[in-house]
């Protein structure tokens, strides 16, 4: 609809054919472009259809509506839509018991479905101790609603998600990551809303990992640790309540993705033989950073053997199709690879050079779509072609606990190493804050 | 005693962000008739998009034999990206048209 809007602005009448299921999304997109009356036809053509009989029937049935949308005189409202007042919700929105607050926020579509911590004045004030920025400081306006990403709204999301004030610097850097995401096809504006159900995946590097106890070891991507659980959850609430990206309206993910609840990991820099991700991307080792990508798929497999050949061959064989990927090696695998002379670049090169598929299969996999990262496909069916065209699209990090499994987070997002990593800025009182919250960790009883 | 029974009450701040009003714009004037007009067909690269427009082109030409059509196919799923990458080409394409039918494949 963005294109239809820009064409209407050039004084050319348009009509857009969309599947009926996309009516809400279409209207939301039209409103976001200031053209609430933009004409579209919710046609009975199945999404991504390729059966011509279905398409012909759907378009044929919509023909009179198509003609009407281009020729029916404009209504006064379509010619000159009435203005809207600034959307300025009351700051204090509700008062009630824990259960009533939860029900109120849930029924307005402002939670992720799980219970939240009430964002009271007191709780938000405590969260704001995690930054030196004032509550009304505006970081930017977040798509799709162009909602104002103020420090206070970020703190409210943090409280609701269960964050500690020491997580606030990560939430601010993460929000900047969304705001400054690569424009166009590879950034948040596509992967935040797409039918592909891409999930924000946050990698944390630098000293802050230990200061706020972000898990990089056993079960790092499982529930059980506040930082991993609450930071990702808060970022989801920021996307929803500041960006205005709601399930089935703006976020048109077909299947959805459990990684959208939270997906946060720290890199295990201490046990890695390689430079950490943020250093690879130009930051200093003592900097703390957060890196954003948008995987769609999470898969794990074990190696054929513990040596370099066994590890890398298994990675190649298990590598699925995707535009970008993060491969997480455990410290023992990474160290075995390093001992056999494999640096990070060598690992990426090996995977890119060895993940080959016959041209016939590649052709089918592209399903008639223009090449994305794959390049052109040779005519000869049995000619082997690389599935990963550019090894820059592979990220390698070290994490996970004892054991043999290797993980892949495969999907989309920005070009690795460019606009996806943000430095985390710490408040002046950081050491005092860390001392106050560092011991908020689970202590498991032996049984 | 639970918080519910103790009557604990929470006054909560709104998580929903403020947003500036978006200036609202009117639609382009409509055509009196499609006969003899040049209709643009704009699609992204989702599989169904160009097929839908091919069908629309055939059916429209059957109804209005005098119309002409011109295509613009984006290279990505997100048509809006094309304005940055192929802006000049896009602008030139629009100039020669009377109206546009778009499809995005979803």
Short summary of the structure?
Chain A is of the alpha/beta class and 447 residues long. Chain A is built from 17 helices and 14 strands. Chain B is of the alpha/beta class and 106 residues long.
Provide key terms for this protein:
heterodimer, A: 447 residues, alpha/beta, seven-stranded mixed sheet, two-stranded parallel ribbon, 14 strands, flat, B: 106 residues, 33% helix
What does this structure look like?
By secondary structure, chain A is of the alpha/beta class. Helix content of chain A is 35%, strand content 16%. Among the domains of chain A are: 2-79, no CATH class; 97-268, no CATH class. Chain A has 17 helices and 14 strands. In chain A, the strands form 4 sheets. In chain A, strands 6, 7, 8, 9, 12, 13 and 14 form a 7-stranded mixed beta sheet that branches. In chain A, strands 1-2 form a two-stranded parallel ribbon. In chain A, strands 4-5 form a two-stranded antiparallel ribbon. Chain B has a domain at 39-106. The model of chain B has no long low-confidence stretch (mean pLDDT 86). A 3-stranded parallel beta sheet of chain B has the order 3-2-4, with helices on both faces. Classes of the chains: A alpha/beta (447), B alpha/beta (106).
Radius of gyration from the alpha-carbon trace of chain B, in angstroms: 24 Å
Please count the beta strands of chain B (DSSP E, at least 2 residues each): 4
Q: Overall pLDDT of chain B, averaged?
A: 86
Number of helices of chain B: 4
Termini separation of chain A: 59 Å
Percent in helix of chain A: 25-40%
Task: Output the helix-strand order of chain B.
Answer: HEEHEHHE
């Amino acid at each position: 609809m963005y294109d239809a809007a820009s064409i209407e602005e050039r004084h050319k009448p348009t009509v857009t054919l969309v599947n009926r299921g996309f009516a809400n999304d279409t209207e939301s997109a039209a409103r976001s472009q200031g053209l609430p009356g933009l004409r579209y036809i919710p046609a009975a053509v199945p999404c991504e259809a390729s059966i011509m009989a279905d398409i012909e029937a759907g378009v044929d049935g919509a023909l009179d509506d198509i003609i009407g949308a281009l020729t029916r005189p404009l209504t006064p409202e379509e010619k000159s839509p009435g203005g809207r007042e600034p959307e300025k919700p009351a700051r204090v929105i509700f008062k009630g018991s824990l259960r009533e607050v939860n029900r109120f926020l849930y029924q307005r579509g402002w939670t992720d479905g799980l219970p939240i911590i009430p964002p009271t004045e007191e709780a938000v004030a405590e969260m704001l101790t995690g930054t030196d920025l004032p509550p009304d400081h505006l970081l930017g306006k977040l798509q799709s609603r162009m909602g104002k990403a103020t420090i206070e709204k970020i703190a409210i999301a943090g409280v609701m998600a269960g964050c500690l004030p020491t997580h606030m610097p990560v939430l601010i850097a993460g929000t900047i990551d969304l705001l400054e995401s690569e424009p166009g096809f590879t950034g948040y504006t596509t992967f935040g809303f797409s039918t592909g159900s891409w999930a924000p995946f946050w990698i944390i590097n630098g000293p802050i990992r230990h200061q706020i106890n972000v898990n990089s070891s056993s079960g790092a991507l499982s529930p059980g640790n506040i930082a991993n659980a609450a930071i990702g959850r808060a970022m989801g609430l920021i996307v929803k309540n500041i960006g205005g990206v709601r399930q089935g309206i703006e976020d048109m993910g077909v299947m959805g993705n459990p990684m959208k609840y939270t997906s946060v990991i720290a890199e295990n820099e201490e046990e890695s033989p390689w430079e950490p991700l943020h250093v690879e991307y130009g930051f200093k080792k003592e900097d703390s950073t957060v890196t954003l990508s948008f995987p769609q798929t999470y898969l794990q497999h074990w190696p054929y053997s513990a040596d370099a050949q066994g590890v890398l061959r298994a990675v190649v064989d298990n590598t699925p199709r995707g535009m970008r990927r993060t491969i997480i090696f455990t410290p023992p695998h990474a160290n075995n690879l390093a001992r056999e002379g494999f640096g990070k670049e060598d690992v990426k090169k090996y995977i890119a050079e060895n993940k080959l598929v016959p041209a016939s299969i590649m052709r089918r996999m592209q399903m008639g779509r223009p090449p994305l990262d794959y390049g052109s496909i040779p005519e000869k069916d049995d000619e082997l072609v690389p599935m990963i065209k550019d090894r820059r699209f592979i990220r390698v990090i070290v994490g996970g606990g004892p054991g043999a499994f290797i993980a892949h987070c495969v999907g989309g997002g920005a070009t690795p190493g460019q606009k996806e990593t943000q430095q985390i800025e710490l408040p002046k009182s950081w050491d005092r804050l860390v001392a106050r919250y560092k011991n908020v960790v689970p202590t498991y009883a032996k049984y | 005693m639970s918080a519910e029974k103790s009557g604990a009450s929470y006054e909560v701040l709104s998580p929903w962000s403020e947003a500036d009003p978006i200036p609202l714009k009117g639609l382009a004037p409509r055509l009196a008739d499609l006969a003899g007009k040049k209709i643009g067909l704009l699609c992204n690269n989702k599989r169904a998009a160009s097929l839908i427009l091919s069908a629309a082109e055939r059916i429209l030409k059957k109804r209005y034999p005098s119309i002409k059509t011109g295509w613009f196919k984006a290279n990505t799923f997100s048509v809006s990206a094309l304005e940055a990458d192929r802006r000049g080409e896009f602008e030139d394409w629009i100039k020669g048209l009377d109206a546009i039918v778009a499809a995005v494949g979803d």
